[in-house]
Amino acid sequence: MSSQATDLHRATIDAILSYAGRATLPFQRAHASGPYGTMFWFNELLESTEDADTVRQLLVTASEPARLVELAEVTLRPELCDPAPSAEKLLIRGFAGGWAHLDGLGVAVQSTAGLHAYAARKGWTWAADGIRDGLTARADDLALITAAPVTAYALAHDVAGEDEDRDQAIVVGSLARAADGSIRWGTRLPEGCAGAPVFYSAPQGDDSFKLLCAGVLLPADDHGFGHHAVVTLDRIRGALADLGPAERPRRRRWWQRRSG
User: Fold this and answer.
1) What's the pTM?
2) Which architecture characterizes domain 3-248 according to CATH?
3) Any idea where the domains of the chain sit in the sequence?
4) What is the Cα gyration radius of the chain?
């Protein structure tokens, strides 16, 4: 790897952790070994004016692991909670039934209202940073991904070691466009990465790049190659429009927007 490529690689990882490091949560079936998944907070921008943004905050993951977990165990990372709670795990009953599954996409979403209500009952608030709409790839960006692989990064909670730690990790792989026009992650992934957001650095000409979130990782396909479909966020946005607002979205004033 050239020094320039190495610099871009390191800069991309630093940017992912800066903009989205507090956006992901691991989940699994409570008191059991698997299934394992990653979900993330996403701030869907519904309207933007000079004075305020109207944002719907959602959890996003892959449908397959979400629908298999009725009693979920979610690890509470201290940096996502203010103040840090005494409990390290959150148990969610009826987890599978809380998701809306986007037709034909293999992606599930739900409002974060339940998580906020839980935190309020326990006397703390969430310090999570949802992946912002401005960080997500548009159709024009995604059209530039071809059959030639580009380096990509999954921000996930894999399963590490015999004690099944679910620490956050950046898994490096690649994205490429398949013959059917879909975008796929071309290498095998550790267990627990399904539902994770996938990022890449998109070239802007003049030797500059911008960090973009391409979409959501699905479980491996059935063809035995370990390839994973990536459901792009432009398709997810289109499907979300059909859901309608689940509750009154919150309005964020310009002075409340997080820097970075």
Assistant:
1) 0.88
2) Beta Barrel (2.40)
3) 3-248
4) 18
